[in-house]
Design goal:
Layout: H1 9-40, H2 45-102, H3 106-120, E1 125-131, E2 137-143, H4 159-162, E3 180-188, E4 191-200, H5 208-273, H6 277-304, H7 315-330, E5 333-338, H8 340-343, E6 345-346, H9 349-370, E7 374-382, E8 385-392, H10 408-419, E9 423-428, E10 434-441, E11 448-449
Parallel strand pairs: 5-7
Antiparallel strand pairs: 1-2, 1-4, 3-4, 6-11, 7-8, 8-10, 9-10
Helix pairs in contact: 1-2, 2-3, 2-5, 3-5, 5-6, 7-9, 9-10
């Protein structure tokens, strides 16, 4: 194998030759003049001959140098034109990328791609065709077509998209506007989903740079189409996620309470038939308590269907507001320890929604299952991490190995934390009750952080003695759990089971569960 040729020595030798050759020539002419011309030619012919020889050599040298300079100038100009074309293409691709990220309308992005294709390739018309549901190519965007310039779409075989030929444009554009034409496929995952084509009214050719430019724009169009498809998919997943959340709430709340109501109504009927009026009244009182619990569940569900954080409100303020509403409805004592740096903090939408739902689920579990007198909600921003915790002084988690295991709520909180890259912990506290903590690294989750407001004494509500009303919540006196119905009446058993309730079968009242700290 021959060694690679180094392009540097040739210009280096040429420079030295331009110095040495004139020197040698002048020296030779001088020697010839002294040895031959001076003895044989009279003055001033010998001097004129020397001058003419030097002038002729100088003219040849200068002409050669000028030719070299002109060649280098042309080469530099051509390179500058190529670089300018590449820079223009890069700017256009950047503008298209920005449009893909900023525009919500796919048609506008595709229209911009067609416009850039026509402009960069100096064409008269550009069209962007996509494969429709029936496998036929359809016109999706165009530039340079007069209002009545588009032909009625003819049937185009899907094979035309798989192996796009420039003639595919003739099915959508008058042939006189596409005498010269060029097409590039739109490919995604190995399959062709469309064609980007340009046409010119004059006979011309397209060089390799223009082919590459059109292919690059076709790639940007594919990115826009894929971006729009993924956005639609994310919206679908958000709807599915919300449906699953509502299903969990219906299962854990309304369904079980309705089964509980059915059981209690049978017990009341049995007491009335036996003439036990007081026992019947006690059962009716429990039914009223269950109805109030259902009311709170439905109200929370309605609030949950809205966005968790109102415009102009921060994450910490939204969590505190929700905790106050739950405490007021459930009548347990509430202590808030909201870090001032988190009160106006805004994160990306996914992180905000999932953190809010985790805290919401934790407070719902306290209300339904914990039987707590006091709850503490805390937020802390420290070292680039946001910590949100909910602690109660209720029954705590059931011992491991029992049949009373956490259900949908705990699993949903873990899934939500994993979805945003947060660390989730749930544990029994030494003094009783359950602690739920989620820690989120803010890297990549905090596009906007408002300046923290000045701290005020009201940010942290001191813990009051049991039974004393809190400044931010209602009195800390939880409703008494409904007493168990007498076991004597057939069909009137009020078993507190965790299984889904069916009409006519025993079921648990979620607010009266005596076994789970987290549902």
């Amino acid at each position: 194998m021959l060694p690679p040729v180094n392009p540097q020595p040739r210009p280096f030798r040429l420079r030295w030759l331009l110095v040495l050759v004139p020197t040698v020539v002048v020296a030779v002419v001088g020697e010839v003049s002294d040895a031959i011309w001076d003895p044989t030619l009279p003055f001033p012919l010998d001097n004129l001959l020397v001058t003419g020889a030097v002038f002729l050599f100088s003219l040849i040298t200068v002409l050669y140098a000028f030719r070299r300079i002109d060649a280098l100038t042309s080469s530099i100009h051509a390179r500058n034109v190529e670089l300018e074309a590449g820079s223009t293409l890069a700017r256009v691709l950047n503008r298209v990328s920005v449009s893909i990220a900023a525009e919500t309308d796919l048609d506008q992005v595709l229209g911009a791609v067609a416009s850039y294709a026509r402009e960069l390739l100096e064409a008269d018309v550009a069209v962007l065709l996509l494969v429709g549901p029936d496998g036929q190519l359809v016109l999706r965007a165009s530039d340079g077509l007069p209002p009545d310039g588009a032909l009625a779409p003819r049937s185009v075989s899907p094979d035309a998209a798989d192996t796009p030929d420039a003639d595919v444009i003739l099915a959508f554009v008058d042939p006189s506007r596409a005498v010269a034409r060029l097409a590039a496929p739109l490919q995604r995952g190995g399959s062709t989903i469309g064609v980007l084509a340009v046409g010119s009214t004059r006979v011309r050719g397209f060089d390799a740079d223009e082919v590459e430019t059109l292919s690059s724009l076709a790639g940007q169009a594919v990115l826009a189409i894929e971006h729009d498809r993924l956005e639609a998919r994310l919206r679908e997943l958000a709807v599915v996620d919300e449906r699953e959340r509502i299903a969990r709430e219906l299962h854990d709340g309304i369904a079980q309470v309705l089964g509980y109501v059915n059981t209690k109504s049978q017990a009341v009927d049995g007491h009335l038939e036996a003439g036990r009026i007081e026992e019947a009244r006690a059962q009716l009182a429990e039914l009223g308590s269950a109805a109030r619990a259902v009311y709170v569940d439905v109200r929370e569900s309605i609030i949950g269907l809205r966005g968790p954080i109102e415009p102009g409100q921060g994450l910490g303020a939204a969590l505190a507001g929700h905790a106050r509403r739950v405490a007021e409805a459930s009548r347990f004592g509430l202590e808030l320890a909201i870090d001032p740096a988190t009160e106006a903090l805004r994160l990306d939408a996914d992180a905000e929604v999932n953190l809010y739902r985790i805290a919401q689920e934790a407070l719902t579990n306290v209300r339904k299952h914990a039987g707590a007198d006091r709850v503490r909600l805390a937020t802390r921003l420290d070292g680039g991490q946001l910590t949100v915790s909910v602690a109660d002084d209720g029954r705590g988690l059931p011992p491991s190995g029992t049949n009373d295991k956490p259900g949908y709520g705990l699993r949903a909180m873990r899934e939500r934390a994993a979805r945003i890259g947060a660390t989730f912990q749930v544990m029994n506290q030494v003094g009783g009750g359950v602690l739920v903590r989620v820690v989120l690294p803010l890297a990549g989750h905090a596009p906007e952080a408002s300046p923290p407001p000045a701290a005020s004494p009201a940010q942290t509500a001191p813990t009051a003695p049991a039974g004393t009303p809190q400044a931010s919540a209602s009195p800390a006196s939880p409703p008494a759990a409904p007493p168990a119905p007498p076991p004597a009446e057939p069909g009137a058993s009020a078993s507190l089971a965790e299984s889904p309730a069916e009409p006519g079968s025993p079921a648990s009242h979620a607010a009266a569960s005596a076994s789970a700290g987290v549902g």
